[in-house]
Design a protein that fits this description.
Two copies of one chain form a homodimer. In chain A, β1, α1 and β2 form a beta-alpha-beta unit. By secondary structure, chain A is of the alpha/beta class. The first copy, chain A, has eleven helices and seven strands. Chains A and B meet through α7, α8, α9, α10 and α11 of A and α7, α8, α9, α10 and α11 of B.
């Protein structure tokens, strides 16, 4: 479900502070400023270079030197950091937040983060996960239209304040995305299958091909190889954190893929074309369930 | 290596007959006619509708009712049929070919086809494999520019006539692609890794996601899922033939992928983030070997 359809994407949000000015944080800033909402967009990053770049690119209106200063007075704080940094960062900023400030994040996993955040900032944390991104990282890749039309999952525990949820949904709407509310556990199950598993398979394909293709013939692949390996250019540090955080769900999705691949392998070894064709039919029917 | 660089792509080829007017055959016809070479492009397909469509779309200049008539007088015959149909078709047309006619194909596997063709048409069969295509099938998806800039693998056994190889290379050049000569066995090893394995993984991902994503939430995926499943829309009949034909090489590539996935699974189960990050680093370095 989207924010009330027809609502303008330019409702004032008050002061929004983006913590972490990489690809996602930078793109959020550009999208908010593009919306021309009557809002201040404050940014902070541990790297002074990223803060300067964010100002240069117009992604933020100001970028104080201190994190505490950056979050004080914010109505909404958006944590755009790797999943293992969100909760430590939340603990650090909570003493400096306004009493009614709301915090959200953009991490790819939600169950653990929402559970821990609920004890650090009861009722005022809403998990977020934009289904848009790139294998490119850093503010240099940031784009104002990165989230246009994308899904943006919002996850909250039952005790969340209605006002907090509403504020996050207005924010998501302002950056161009469509909100989808999920229970954090359901979220983690779905993204294990449609995001985390595709990343694992892309890494596995790259590894296999490198071991099998003779030196000098690396340009032999075409579309299926390019598409199948694209996200293997993603950051190992970022992704080891995401995958570890959602390990239980990912293993279940991975096991489904391994079961299918093991059956296909057996059909290949047995030269059993009929069995293989049946497996392909079944998987193609599975693919037909998805709109893309 | 390409056909002598700088050579015009419009050298006359004489009469070319395309047998099988689907996506690839239709696109070859459109590309040849775009090149405006002083050539006749004759087409044949088992389906009268496909023959009519090929004429309507301008992919061929004529499309006789009989296969024998279509191939008689051809300097080059291009077999654009599933891999399991190439050799039976070759046997059928050989009695009707001109004494110096050359035959090539576009199948995704080459070792078996080249070996069998060498005994049916000694010295005058050259295997071909354009690294371009689409998960869409049929002449409706045909495009004159489908092969522009793509690799087109040519494979022949050592006893092939030089003239046959030259004629096929001129043809490939005329449709806009770049020829790459390979030993058939090397070809099959490479495409197992960069084409056949990506297809298997796309089918596996579709199957896994369908089993894990709750009904009604199928639109949750984003770029990595779209790219990772795209070729799972391919034809199970066509692909069961390709995969079975190249089973030995595919199993070896698949086993490399399975070994990596099994290690990653173990790291996930053990919550061993360092081990997982190392696996991702290794696979990302593998990906960096490839230009795309």
């Amino acid at each position: 479900v989207s924010y009330p359809p027809g609502a303008p994407r330019t409702d004032p949000l008050g002061r929004v502070t983006i913590v972490g000015l990489g690809l996602i944080g930078g793109s959020i800033g550009l999208a908010l400023r593009r919306a021309s909402v009557d809002s201040e967009v404050v940014g902070w990053d541990v790297s002074p270079e990223a803060r300067i770049a964010a100002i240069d690119r117009g992604a933020v209106t100001c970028a104080p030197n201190s994190l505490h200063e950056a979050v004080s007075g914010a109505r909404l704080v958006v944590l755009c950091v790797p999943v293992d940094s969100s909760i430590p960062l939340l603990r650090e900023i909570v003493p400096h937040l306004s009493p009614d400030a709301v915090v959200t994040d953009v991490g790819s996993t939600k169950a653990r983060i929402c559970a821990e955040a609920a004890s650090v900032l009861p009722g005022r944390f809403v998990g977020g996960h934009p289904m848009a991104g790139s294998e490119v990282s850093g503010i240099d890749g940031a784009r104002a239209d990165l989230f246009d039309g994308a899904n943006w999952f919002a996850t909250a525990l039952p005790d969340v304040n209605d006002d907090a949820l509403d504020r996050v949904e207005r924010f998501v709407w302002a950056v161009g995305a469509n909100i989808r509310r999920f229970d954090p556990a359901v979220h983690d199950r779905i993204v294990a299958a449609v995001s985390h598993l595709p990343h694992l398979l892309a890494f596995a394909l790259s590894e296999a091909a490198a071991n099998r293709v003779p030196q000098g013939l690396e340009d032999a692949g075409a579309g299926s190889f390019r598409d199948g390996t694209r996200v293997a250019a993603s950051s190992p540090r970022l992704w080891s954190g995401i995958l570890t955080d959602n390990a239980e769900e990912i293993v279940q999705s991975l096991d489904e893929a391994l079961a299918w691949l093991t059956s296909a392998r057996a059909a290949l070894v047995d030269s059993d074309r009929a069995a293989l064709e049946q497996l392909l039919e079944q998987a193609r029917a599975a693919k037909d369930r998805f709109p893309q």
